[in-house]
Amino acid sequence: MRRYIALITILVVVLTSCSAQTNKIKHYFSEASNNDEDFTSKVFDVLNNDKESECTIEFKTGIYNFYPEKAYEKYVKISNNDNGLRKFIFALEGRKNITINGNGATFIFHGSVIPFLVENSTNIKIENINIEYDFPFDLEGVVVANNQKEKTFDLKINKENKYKIKDDILYFSGYDWEIGMGENIVYNAITKSPEYFTSKYEHNFNKHFLKATDLGNNIVRFSNLDAAKVPPVGSIYSDKGPHGKNRNIVGFRVYKSKNLVLNNINVYHSGAMALIAEKTETISLNKFNVILKEGSTRVISATADATHFINCKGKISMDDCRFENMLDDATNVHGTYMICDEVIDASTVALKFGHFQQQGFDFAEKGDTLRFIDRTNLLPVGIGVVKSIDMINENYYKIAFEDKIPDFTKKNIAIENITWMPSLEVKNCSVKQNRARSLLISTSKPVLIENNYFASMMAGIRICGDANYWFESGPVSNVTIRGNTFENLGVGGHSPQAILQIDPIIGKEYRKDGYYHKNIVFENNKIRTFDPLVIYALSVDGLIIRNNTIIQTKKYPQIFNDLSPFDLQNCTNIKIEGNTYKGDNEASISLINCQKLEIDSKQEGFLENTIKNPNKYFYQN
Amino acid sequence: MRRYIALITILVVVLTSCSAQTNKIKHYFSEASNNDEDFTSKVFDVLNNDKESECTIEFKTGIYNFYPEKAYEKYVKISNNDNGLRKFIFALEGRKNITINGNGATFIFHGSVIPFLVENSTNIKIENINIEYDFPFDLEGVVVANNQKEKTFDLKINKENKYKIKDDILYFSGYDWEIGMGENIVYNAITKSPEYFTSKYEHNFNKHFLKATDLGNNIVRFSNLDAAKVPPVGSIYSDKGPHGKNRNIVGFRVYKSKNLVLNNINVYHSGAMALIAEKTETISLNKFNVILKEGSTRVISATADATHFINCKGKISMDDCRFENMLDDATNVHGTYMICDEVIDASTVALKFGHFQQQGFDFAEKGDTLRFIDRTNLLPVGIGVVKSIDMINENYYKIAFEDKIPDFTKKNIAIENITWMPSLEVKNCSVKQNRARSLLISTSKPVLIENNYFASMMAGIRICGDANYWFESGPVSNVTIRGNTFENLGVGGHSPQAILQIDPIIGKEYRKDGYYHKNIVFENNKIRTFDPLVIYALSVDGLIIRNNTIIQTKKYPQIFNDLSPFDLQNCTNIKIEGNTYKGDNEASISLINCQKLEIDSKQEGFLENTIKNPNKYFYQN
């Protein structure tokens, strides 16, 4: 008995005071006795009682609820999501050596709250946590009837969604939010993957609202559909609200930090990206899973990317992670191109963003090296070191450089920050059942993608770069993709999707000017695919494709059947060898404007000679 | 010639450098040679080249344009308006001794930009400026046809409004913004005042959207009207968008400053309040006019209050100002009640706001004295001095007091800040053609309202105070209203509106507990009114009504004809003498639960005896 009293005394003491006298204070949370109890203030107080402390917060396994009323709040600019006033539960700002260990606890977040904020913090470890929400940030339902002629379908709305209909428009809602319908996708209820050729069912909400009529019993009839086909009976229709308004509640907001470790975390849902890290050095994800909860009848986990890294540095590593059922990529590692709006004087420029969801991004700071590129051919025209930067508004920055900048007054210039580029290692991960790509890679530092499983709806690994649409920089210079399995990607039907898709956006007339990417190795991968296209590569200097096994499947009817498995354009220093193709016909290799070729003409299942058969889908103009 | 060269040299020098060596640097702006030139950066640069400088910025008479692209931006919480990320053209933060003199120049603002920001600044003078916008923030049009049976009306939309119709909903827009329809009012095109009994035409947009059909030639047919009557042909229908989204672009944002002078300024339009000042000490308005531009075909100037002062101190004075055609009050001078959400310990409480548009208000700081009141009877239950305040989110503050607070754990408590209350003087001003009241007064410091002309749609001078609806504090203790003219107010028909309306919101059963307001003198005023009610007073200790002349007009049919001109309830220390009533019948004085009366029974046009005829409209429960 005495032992227990002593233990309780210690617990009470560590919960109410937090001193920095010892290296690491421990705070313990036992499971709430009342399941509805709000732990928001308790967590806030522990973290704020002593902002200098280095501590571990341990939760006993169990369920903890967090509500918005007492949550810490501030205005944040979160690139590639939507900026705004946001509430946060675990808010780490300017902290170091903090560990938050859930010991397998489940955190249920209610309403518009972002679970984790990590800003200007160092050595932060968060682990052993399950993240759930009271109400999902997307609407889901089963199509129980449809009428192709009338262009209507009846949806049995999931019980997890609250909704109302006003003036023929359906609004779905949660604890403290409500949103109209917008971006949508049709999923297959059995495979929990996007329906084959799901693009046919996509409603163009920019043109018309879906008109909603309540039929009772949680069934709503939608008419006014602007899509090629009505969704099939039995499929799942999901809607996350209008673009520009549906990326508010990320799972982890990470900004200007260093050494972040996320271990053994299940993000079952988020109302934007599950993890978005900006300007952060070295991030390690181990068993960081963005997945549906076992037994859930839902089909969407994160309503945007599982992970996303913008102008980070150091090393980003992912090991043994599962990324499933997101409405966007598993990861996207890139920098940002800003547009040069005005040359103010010989060493000063004014910049703006090319995409509205980049506005407010912390583009550069004093001492950073920036690279100027020509927006037409994406090639460098100079560099400069930042002397000062002034964000006058979220879309108008002035940068003064240490030295005179090149005279590019007559050129259309974009600028990227090459001080902030990370290396990347993705190992033993799997990506499936998500809309969009598996990985998007745009970093000049070394990249290793090894022993993963990819089965996303769009491309497997996309290496793009553009200064005219997404404005995501920059070129790669050292990418190795080996020992991975790719299975039946590209089922969405939106446009051809390659297993490895290297497609910087360069106008046809400028492709002769040079090469954007370099040194990409794709080897020892296993590809099972129903559509023929495997690799599309544009503007690469140094591309090795070797010892890959490609097996044609009959899983789905082909969608883009007129493409060569390997389609290379404006590339140089190419080596293709040891690949195997198993399919109905021999595979072709298409080359346009390519040089310095080493192509093994005896590859199993391949035609002996290369062909010239331009891929009409990829940016021909 | 040499003189000119010298002059130009001087001009260039003062425009490009701003040093604090002399007491006041002068910056000159000559009129733009190209009328479309954007002066935003020029103004920004002059103010930011040396943030320590004390300077005068002079404009040559002419037209100057300001655009949003290069405007300074930040997230602001503006009480009684809508919080958000806003752009500002003249941004004064932490400045002192600055004069901005337009010399009669016209500033045309394009899009979502707030003309003036004055924060943490002292001795600021802004004068001789006309403020216009490219596109109005409300939609206006003439009703060219209507159909009472079908509940439709056809509106010829003003040429100044851009609009589109999508899915039967009309959206109007400006340079960089777009909004759907919402709060609306019908104006008379000839008088440019709200239509008589305009409440009949008010569309309840919360229930239904107005369905819009384009008939061509800028004429739109609206159906689905949820109002008692369709707007009359020839009237002006105005709509400013939905509540909670239509108070973004104030004219002047003034915050935590001292000694502000605004002279000879015409605010022809603003997309929220024309002037909103919070926590500011001493403000002087002279010829600060919120009016329509001469010759304009429009009916709305500011889309909310002309001026509004929250928890200011020192003296607010207005002289020779015109406030016309606003969609809300000419002024509202008040404090803020926060609700006690939780008693955390003997000296700490958690607070929240009662009205969503107060959220984020800078309620108190260390050293301020706060008064606790009982929300049922509005009476004080104690005071406390702030030791610290922590805004955890915009609707959850924690305040620690220097001493123990009274035990009010069982009471429903609100808290007001009595350190920040201003005195007020309004002289020689006129208010007309606006929706809502002329003046709203809630301050305990001396108030003098003298020699003004009031002809607003609702009450003339309202002295309210409540801790359950608007949450605007506090009681008055010294108000003199004399020598003013009031003319045919209360035409809107929403509810009875008194010339002097003292109506703190206190439940009937709690009115016996005490008196909320005190010491109000209403004397030597001239009232011309078509409806009988002149003064309604509840819960006043010390009310003098003397030597006023009331003339019944036939301008409109009576709306609330069953009320006594003087209707006093739960008041004490009352003196009524020397008043004159000229009308069809003798005027009555109604008294309920009133004490300590001195009533002259020989007042001209009044019944000899008082009556007891409860006003059923004012908060009887």
TrEMBL record, chains A, B:
The keyword Zinc-finger does not apply. This is Alpha-1,3-galactosidase A. Pfam families: Beta-barrel_GLAA-B_I, Beta-barrel_GLAA-B_II. PROSITE patterns: PROKAR_LIPOPROTEIN (PS51257). SMART domains: PbH1. It comes from Yeosuana aromativorans. Residues 140-236, 348-410 form the GLAA-B beta-barrel domain. SUPFAM superfamilies: Pectin lyase-like. InterPro entries: Beta-barrel_GLAA-B_I (IPR057275), Beta-barrel_GLAA-B_II (IPR056441), PbH1 (IPR006626), Pectin_lyas_fold (IPR012334), Pectin_lyase_fold/virulence (IPR011050). It catalyses: Hydrolysis of terminal, non-reducing alpha-D-galactose residues in alpha-D-galactosides, including galactose oligosaccharides, galactomannans and galactolipids; Hydrolysis of terminal, non-reducing branched (1->3)-alpha-D-galactosidic residues, producing free D-galactose. Residues 1-20 form the signal peptide. GO terms for molecular function: alpha-galactosidase activity. Keywords: Glycosidase, Hydrolase, Repeat, Signal. The gene is glaA. It comes from the Bacteria.
